[in-house]
Automatic annotation (TrEMBL):
Annotated ranges, domain DUF427: 169-260
Top-rank taxon, per record: Bacteria
Gene3D superfamilies given in the database record: Domain of unknown function (DUF427)
PANTHER family, per database record: BLR5716 PROTEIN, DUF427 DOMAIN PROTEIN (AFU_ORTHOLOGUE AFUA_3G02220)
Native source species: Raineyella antarctica
Lineage summary: Bacteria, Bacillati, Actinomycetota, Actinomycetes, Propionibacteriales
Cited InterPro entries: DUF427, DUF427_sf
A UniProt-annotated Pfam family: NTP_transf_9
Protein name: Uncharacterized conserved protein, DUF427 family
Length: 278
């Protein structure tokens, strides 16, 4: 009996998972002090985590690893948020690193520039003995080889493809056309809804106004948001643009994408839906 690849991957979501990487990994503090320098890193997903963290051998941490104050051994189960497609719950990048879902010990990294509280975690799992998991947000900058990376470690089992398309894409709200194009670039990202990036010439830019919101994607870069004002109604953060995307997303530079779940979006006359916005 055939199994969908997503179902196969999801079936291991409750396990502690690891995958070797041959990348040279470094992490620096906000003061540019290199604290992690490793050519032996692993990608590790704690149970229910949907994105990985880096784990390195203890000697590759440039500092003293000491138990976090009051932390002791972490052995409790965490209460996990519910997801309609993941009935057992998931932990997303919005859940802090200290919300561990596997037994182990929380560690502070003591450096010459100061302490990084609870920035490391030593799991009890014997396959990870001598390794520590690292909190991405505890550091000011991460590098894979000599390239700075943002958001979280890249998952080798996920990717994006950007393809130009002549499909007819229309975005509307209560009869008002926000975009109408046959020149969209379609962005396909593993396990996520297709996104339709539209040239500004085909967008009613007079209805959009810049938002203060910005988000970071590890694969696409930093997104700037737009709100739409239609009459007296303000649709906050309804669209976004990558002005300086990372290399995989260069084809969508400066193009505008809309939240299909909040607007009417049709592709060749068929309504396009999505599980949830991101």
């Amino acid at each position: 009996m055939a199994i969908a690849m997503k179902d196969l991957q999801d079936s291991a979501l409750g396990d502690l998972r690891l995958h070797p990487t041959h990348k040279w990994i470094r992490a620096a503090t906000h003061g540019d002090l290199v604290v992690v320098d490793s050519r032996r890193a692993l990608l590790v997903w704690e149970p229910r985590r949907i994105v990985p963290c880096y784990a390195v051998p203890e000697p590759d941490v440039i500092g003293e690893l000491v138990p976090s104050d009051g932390a002791g051994s972490v052995s409790r189960r965490v209460a996990l948020p519910r997801d309609p497609d993941m009935p057992h719950g998931v932990l997303t990048p919005d859940d802090p690193f200290v919300r561990h879902s596997t037994p182990g010990t929380s560690l502070t990294i003591r450096t010459e520039a100061g302490d990084l509280p609870a920035a490391a975690f030593a799991p009890d799992d014997r396959d990870l003995a001598g390794w520590v998991l690292l909190d991405w947000d505890a550091f000011g900058q991460w590098y894979e080889e000599d390239e700075p990376v943002m958001g979280h470690p890249h998952d080798p089992f996920k990717r994006i493809d950007c393809l130009r398309s002549s499909r007819h894409v229309e975005v509307t709200h209560r009869g008002v056309v926000l975009a109408d194009t046959r020149r969209a670039t379609l962005l396909y990202e593993t396990h996520l809804p297709t996104r339709y990036y539209i040239p500004r010439e085909d967008v009613a830019m007079e209805l959009l106004e810049p938002s203060d919101r910005h988000t970071v994607c590890a694969y696409k870069g930093q997104a700037s948001y737009w709100s739409a004002r239609i009459g007296d109604e303000l649709l906050a953060d309804i669209a976004w643009t990558y002005e300086a995307p990372l290399h995989d997303a260069v084809p969508v530079r400066g193009l505008v994408a809309f939240y299909a779940g909040k607007l009417g979006l049709t592709v060749d006359g068929v309504v396009a839906g999505e599980r949830r916005p991101r």
